[in-house]
Structures are given as C-alpha cells and as structure tokens.
C-alpha cells in the first residue's frame, strides 16, 4: 500500500504541474507550427479574406479541441456527468469546476496562436489589403480605376513580385500600414487576455473561496476514486485469474487420476515446494493434454464448484444474485474477452 | 513521515527560488519576444506616436499582469486578505510584505522590456520623429510645413525611396537614438541603485518587524500547501474506504442470494482476501454495472465503525 500511496501523492501533487506542462508544450508547439507553416496569400480579391481569416481562426479552434483531447480528465468529466444519480447526489458545482479548469488550460494554445499571428502581421495584411484607404495613403495624382480593377490591384499587395499598383499606392506604405494595425490589434488582444486571466484569478479568492475549496476537493476525490477502483479491479482480476488457473490445473489432475486408473507417481518427500507447483502434472502427455485443453475449452469464469463434477468442459454458472432495481438481461455465454 | 518532511523542507527553501526562477524566465521571454517581433513603424504622421508609445508601454503592462498571475504567492496573499477574521487575527504587516515581494518580482520583466526598447531606440525614433524641430536639419528646413510633417514621419523608415540616402534623416535618427539610449541607461542605473540601496539599508530599519512578517508569510504559504496535501491524503483514504465498503456490500449481497456454498480456503489466503467474495463472471459484471449505475453514497461512517 505504501507504494500506491507514494505514487498517488506524486500524481496528485504533480497532476496540476503535469497538465501545466502539457499546456506549455502545446503553446510552444503552436508557435513552432506557425513559424514552420509556409504562408501563401492567394492575392486574389475574393480569396484573400477567406484565406487570411481562415488561417487566423481555424487552427486555434483545432488547438482548443486538441487541448481537450489530450486532457485525461475529459472522460472523467463525461462519466460523472452521465452517470445515474443512484445513492450519490450529483453536484453541478463540481462539474463546473472540472469543466472550467480544463477549458482554461485548453485556451492557452489558441490564444498564443492568435497573438503570434496578429503580431506577425501576414494574415491581416492578406485579409484586409483590399480595404486599405487609398485616399489617405495613395498618390492623389493617379487616375481613378473602376472598383473591380482597384480591388484586383490592391489584392496583390502582399505579393510583392506581381504587384503592379506602385503608382496607385506604394507597396511598402500599404504593408507598413496593415502591419501596424495588425500589431496594434495583437497587443490589444494580448493585453485583454492577460487582464481577463488576472481578473478571473484574483477575484476568485475574494468571492467564492469556500465553494471553490469544496469543488476542488470533490473533483480530486472523483479522480482518485476512479484510479483506486481501477487498481482494485486489476488486483481482483489478477487473483481471479490465478485461482481460476489453479483450479483448472487441479481439475485436470483430478480428471487424469479418475480416467487413467492409476495413482500418479509420488515424488520423493524431500522435493517439497517444487512438487506442489507441478500440480500433479508430471509427464509429457499430461502436459500436452493440459495445453490442448486450455486452448480448446477454457474453464468457465466461475471459481469453486464444490459439489458438482468439475471438468474442463462444463460451462455452467452459479445462481445469479437477485438484483434489486436494474434488470439483468445479459446471458453468461461469452468468454471471448478472457 | 520522513518523506513528507523532506518534501516540505524542499518547498519551503525553494518557494523563493521557484518564484525567482519564474521571474527570470519571464524576463528572458520578454527580451526574446522583443527581438523576434518585427518592429515596423507605420511612418504616417498620425500613427507614429501611437504605435511607438504603444509598443513601449502596452507589452510591459501585459508582462506585469503575467508576472502577477504566475506567482503563487499572489493567491496566498489574496486569500489572507479576503478571509473573514474568525479566530485568527489578521496582520496587515504580513499582507504588506507579501504584496511588496510580489510587486517587486512582477516588475522585473516590464522593466527589462522598457530598457531593451529604449536601448534599441526604434520605438522612440518612431514616436518622436514627428516632433522634431525641422529648422535644425538642412533638408527639412526648406520644405513646406505640410511636407515637413510627412518627411519627418518617414524618418524611421530607412528603405523609403525619399529617405534612402538622406543625410538629414540619418541626423534625426542618430539624435533620437542618442536620447533614447541615454534615457535607457539612466533608467537602468536608477533602478539598480534603488535596488542596491533598498537591499543594503533594509537591515537598518525595523529588522525585527521584517523578520516577523517574513516568517508569518512563509508560514501562511506552507500551511496552505500542507492543507492541500492533507486533503489529497484524506480523499485517497476516503476513496479507499468507500471502495472497500462497496466490495463488502456486494459480497454481503452475494452471500445473501447465492444458493451455492462457498468453499473457503481455496488458493492462498492473500488471493481469497483480494477476491473479496466475488468469484464469478456474473458477480463481476454486476459489480461493475452497480459501480456505474449506483455509485455508493459518500458516507464511510459505517465502514469506519466496523
């Protein structure tokens, strides 16, 4: 039990830092993906906006969902939300706490992507180059073009090699203008997000500290209980398998004694423990028969049948216990998962 | 218990160093961010000042707030400040100490950003090129007032065709960069002298009160950590008892309803104990189903009384 206690303390104290670590890695990954991504503005009037805004908004959404997927606690939340009430009441505050803490962590990578995108400026330049105020920034002496032509020329601003509107509006001027707007938006976004995070974190102790402590305790409890239950079931399954196999070998041994009408040769007394472990199977044929039987007809998932003739072929079952409320409809005839 | 003690000694001695480490990382991150973000002055009369001063002052605010958020002690301080008095008196000196220590650490990264910005010079050149006196520079003195504003606004952009080899542009640029760097170094010097004096003169003023405030602020921090650890330990034991109680109640039910005699002593004692009376596929399935459909109540008082 000591080993379990150590492991659980480690997990508990480090679960938060583990999840924070995953957050940090995802944030770094998002900056890395952005810098590795080859941004290619289409430089066509109707496609620019879609491409630019798409690159700005779709990856953050994907990163947000990924943040949820990588979080182990999402299945715990879903389980707690969907379980029938039974004898244990459901506390919506606990569910809200779990969801909020997961959502906060999942938001970090998308926010980093949007900030980096805005501060870099390429997306906004691509998306809004057709909306540049030509009257202010452009050369007043240039003859006016039709709306469509103007848009086509302006759409090529991000692509310096094919830009042909230098007389209309200088390429560098337009790009500087758009990048300035983009960086201003980016820094405002960063400031807004930091302020929001600060407010959420600092107002909480002033208002709902007791309720927060309660929700946190019970959400940790649910997590630990689930882990302990899995551990207990694993222990149980191990013991079940051990006893089942022991009974199988003993059953084989008894069968052989009954069938062959001769007593198994008793090994000398001083062989001791090793002899017991042989479980009465002491020659080549017997072992082969045991192995064949294990493959052809696995024993039933039912330990100890004291009065009935135990064999390796009977697929009987004990009396199913009468259940109070949930109707028991399953048939006990599937062994395939053993 | 020894292990607990070791862990808590580690926390106590390293709480300060963890905070210092985070402070250092944030400072490095701010410098890295400055170098990696492409500074591009708009070179337009109305926008230059806003952009230049914005880049100089908005990121430090965000870095300051980040420094407050990432510091664990800020939560401790807020809890101590907002808690009802109850049976324990509140000491304003402790809260003040915590507040000042948090603020000092949070100010390092913004100060680093401002100093790096000033030493680099681009922000100040962008913000104040339009406010220069054109009379002092040959090329700008001869232009009309409207043109002068446009020209001065284009000074930060070296690649602009009008400005490419313009000596007056270089003069304005050098002048503003000189001012910017002088300001940057002065601020750095003042901050370092202030930090030096504060640290050196502190023992001369009220050292006993300071020691008390520091002790009790460490105490509050550790008390909260230990409370969280104890809650974890408690919830683990609670869960353990609850699950054992659940298995026991299943065993009782099996005994009550099953007609076959259970044979004791099959296999080793350890295995029997771990099997907890559940020895059948149906019983296991039922147990798992019960665990989902009807979780046991959060009440282990019967289990502990047994």
TrEMBL record, chain A:
Gene Ontology MF term list: monoatomic cation channel activity
One family name in Pfam for this protein: Ca_hom_mod
One record GO biological process: ATP export
Keywords from the named record: Ion channel, Ion transport, Membrane, Transmembrane, Transmembrane helix, Transport
Bilayer disposition of the protein: Multi-pass membrane protein
Record bears the keyword Protein transport: no
Family per similarity comment: Belongs to the CALHM family.
Protein name: CAHM1 protein
Organism: Eolophus roseicapilla (Galah cockatoo)
Phylogenetic placement of the source organism: Eukaryota, Metazoa, Chordata, Craniata, Vertebrata
TrEMBL record, chain B:
Subcellular location: Membrane
Record's bilayer topology term: Multi-pass membrane protein
Keywords on record: Ion channel, Ion transport, Membrane, Transmembrane, Transmembrane helix, Transport
The keyword Aminoacyl-tRNA synthetase is annotated on this UniProt entry: no
GO CC term (a single one): plasma membrane
Pfam families xrefs: Ca_hom_mod
GO molecular function: monoatomic cation channel activity
Keyword Transmembrane included in the entry's annotation: yes
BP-aspect Gene Ontology terms: ATP export
Membrane-spanning ranges: 21-37, 49-70, 182-201
Sequence similarity: Belongs to the CALHM family.
PANTHER family: CALCIUM HOMEOSTASIS MODULATOR PROTEIN (PTHR32261), CALCIUM HOMEOSTASIS MODULATOR PROTEIN 3 (PTHR32261:SF7)
Protein name per UniProt: CAHM3 protein
């Amino acid at each position: 039990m000591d080993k379990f206690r150590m492991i659980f303390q480690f997990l508990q104290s480090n679960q938060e830092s583990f999840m924070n670590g995953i957050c940090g890695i995802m944030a770094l990954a998002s900056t890395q993906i952005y810098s590795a991504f080859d941004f290619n503005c289409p430089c066509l009037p109707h496609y620019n906006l879609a491409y630019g805004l798409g690159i700005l908004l779709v990856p953050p959404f994907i990163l947000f969902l990924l943040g949820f997927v990588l979080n182990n606690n999402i299945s715990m939340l879903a389980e707690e939300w969907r379980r029938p009430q039974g004898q244990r009441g459901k506390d919506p505050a606990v569910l809200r706490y779990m969801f909020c803490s997961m959502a906060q962590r999942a938001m970090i990578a998308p926010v980093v992507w949007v900030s980096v995108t805005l501060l870099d400026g390429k997306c906004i330049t691509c998306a809004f180059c057709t909306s540049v105020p030509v009257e202010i920034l452009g050369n007043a002496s240039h003859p006016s073009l039709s709306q469509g032509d103007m848009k086509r020329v302006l759409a090529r601003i991000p692509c310096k090699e094919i830009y042909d509107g230098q007389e209309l509006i200088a390429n560098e001027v337009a790009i500087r203008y758009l990048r300035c707007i983009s960086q201003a938006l980016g820094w405002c976004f960063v400031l807004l997000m930091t302020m929001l995070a600060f407010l959420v974190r600092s107002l909480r102790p002033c208002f709902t500290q007791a309720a927060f402590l309660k929700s946190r305790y019970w959400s940790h409890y649910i997590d630990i209980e689930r882990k302990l239950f899995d551990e207990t079931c694993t222990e149980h399954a191990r013991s079940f398998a051990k006893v089942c196999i022991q009974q199988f070998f003993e059953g084989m041994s008894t069968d052989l004694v009954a069938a062959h009408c001769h007593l198994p040769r008793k090994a000398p007394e001083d062989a001791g423990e090793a002899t017991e472990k042989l479980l009465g199977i002491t020659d080549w044929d017997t072992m082969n028969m045991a192995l064949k039987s294990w493959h052809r007809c696995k024993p039933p998932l039912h330990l100890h049948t004291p009065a009935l003739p135990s064999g390796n072929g009977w697929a009987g079952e004990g009396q199913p216990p009468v259940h109070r409320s949930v109707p028991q409809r399953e048939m006990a005839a599937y062994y395939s998962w053993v | 218990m020894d292990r607990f003690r070791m862990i808590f000694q580690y926390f106590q001695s390293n709480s300060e160093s963890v905070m210092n480490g985070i402070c250092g990382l944030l400072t490095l991150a701010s410098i890295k961010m400055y170098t990696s973000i492409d500074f591009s002055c708009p070179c337009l009369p109305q926008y230059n000042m806003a952009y230049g001063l914005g880049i100089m002052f908005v990121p430090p605010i965000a870095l300051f707030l980040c420094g407050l958020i990432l510091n664990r002690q800020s939560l401790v301080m807020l809890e101590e400040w907002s808690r009802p008095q109850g049976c324990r008196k509140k000491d304003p000196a402790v809260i003040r100490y915590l507040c000042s220590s948090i603020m000092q650490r949070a100010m390092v990264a913004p100060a680093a950003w401002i100093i790096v910005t000033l030493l680099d010079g681009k922000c100040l050149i962008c913000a104040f090129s339009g406010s220069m006196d054109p009379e002092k520079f040959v090329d700008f003195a001869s232009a009309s007032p409207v043109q002068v504003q446009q020209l001065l606004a284009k000074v930060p952009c070296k690649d602009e065709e009008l400005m490419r080899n313009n000596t007056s542009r270089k003069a304005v640029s050098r002048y503003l960069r000189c001012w910017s760097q002088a300001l940057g170094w002065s601020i750095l010097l003042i901050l370092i002298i202030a930090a030096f004096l504060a640290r050196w003169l502190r023992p001369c003023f009220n050292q006993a009160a300071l020691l008390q405030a520091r002790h009790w602020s460490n105490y509050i921090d550790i008390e909260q950590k230990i409370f969280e650890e104890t809650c974890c330990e408690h919830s683990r034991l609670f869960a353990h008892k609850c699950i054992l109680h659940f298995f026991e109640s299943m065993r009782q039910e099996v005994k009550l309803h099953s007609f076959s005699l259970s044979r004791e002593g099959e296999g080793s004692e350890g295995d029997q104990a771990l099997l907890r009376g559940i020895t059948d596929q149906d019983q296991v399935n039922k147990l798992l189903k019960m665990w989902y459909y009807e979780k046991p109540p959060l009440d282990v008082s019967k289990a502990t009384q047994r």
